[in-house]
Automatic annotation (TrEMBL):
Gene responsible for this protein: pyrF
EC number: 4.1.1.23
Lineage of the species this protein comes from: Bacteria, Bacillati, Bacillota, Negativicutes, Veillonellales
GO molecular function term, any single one: orotidine-5'-phosphate decarboxylase activity
Family: Belongs to the OMP decarboxylase family. Type 1 subfamily.
Known function: Catalyzes the decarboxylation of orotidine 5'-monophosphate (OMP) to uridine 5'-monophosphate (UMP).
Full protein name: Orotidine 5'-phosphate decarboxylase
């Protein structure tokens, strides 16, 4: 049956399309990612529906603003009951601390389990030239490590990282730190536009705690069968 380490990305823009997918996947998937496309189209109902279905929700809105605004936004999102949420590590220490405090405080008030916060380090669409162009002083690899360390210090629970960064972050931030990696292609799937990707079992062996997988499941001729094949691939890993 389902494995909480696999998060299926619901990259659709209507509640109807989302529900169709969730119904099709049934009990083969227990954890879903709601990203900007779906949230900006369908709003909080997308999260509420998934929670009503007993699913875990990764709300990937990549929040980034001044600390006060981020704190208040994270409070509002905490009330939706998502399990994982994202913010940009480049928002800095004070912004991450404000988010970490807001999520703890709001969850305690509501007496619910605290959603975990993940910092995005450097977007994988940024290459060294683009990083320099926006003022990056160190290499991307150095900057990713620095941001992962800063995130942990600021009370953030994990990072969203490329599978290629997972090993180092795991060694640096210890066994309890969450490492969520997209860019995963099961052995049976095509790469689509992912250039740097790895298999589910390799990413887990490299230290990822959760894998975000989209098209290999959602665009498969038989999505449930694809999800089940992935579950079989990671059995025992
Ligand atoms: O379809 P695919 O498996 O490529 O989807 C992966 C999901 O992870 C998508 O929602 C995509 O936006 C997200 N993502 C990614 N690569 C990154 C960051 C996020 O594919 N570097």
């Amino acid at each position: 049956m389902a494995d909480d380490r696999i998060i299926t990305a619901l990259d659709v823009h209507s509640l109807e399309d989302m529900k169709k997918l969730v119904e099709t996947l049934g009990d083969s998937v227990s954890f879903y990612k709601v990203g900007m496309e779906l949230f900006y189209s369908a709003g909080p109902d997308a999260v509420r529906y998934l929670k009503d279905q007993g699913k875990h929700v990764f709300l990937d809105l990549k929040v980034h603003d001044i600390p006060n605004t981020v704190g208040q936004s994270i409070r509002a999102l905490t009330r939706l009951g998502a399990d994982l949420m994202t913010l940009h590590g480049t928002g800095g220490r004070a912004m991450m601390e404000a988010a970490a405090e807001a999520v703890r405080d709001e969850a305690a008030k509501l007496n619910i389990e605290r959603p975990r916060l993940l910092a995005v380090t450097v977007l994988t669409s940024i290459d060294e030239d683009a990083w320099k162009e926006i003022g990056g002083k160190y290499s991307i690899a150095e900057s990713v490590k620095n941001l992962a360390k800063l995130a942990k210090e600021a009370g953030i629970d994990g990072t969203v990282s490329s599978p290629y960064e997972a090993k180092e972050i795991r060694e640096m931030n210890g066994p309890d730190f969450l490492i969520v990696t997209p860019g995963i292609r099961p052995t049976f799937a095509v790469a689509n536009d992912q250039k740097r990707f790895t298999t589910p079992s390799q990413a887990l062996r490299d230290g990822a705690s959760h894998l975000v997988i989209g098209r290999p499941i959602t665009k498969a001729a038989d999505p449930k069968e694809a999800a089940e094949k992935i579950l079989a691939e990671i059995q025992g890993v």
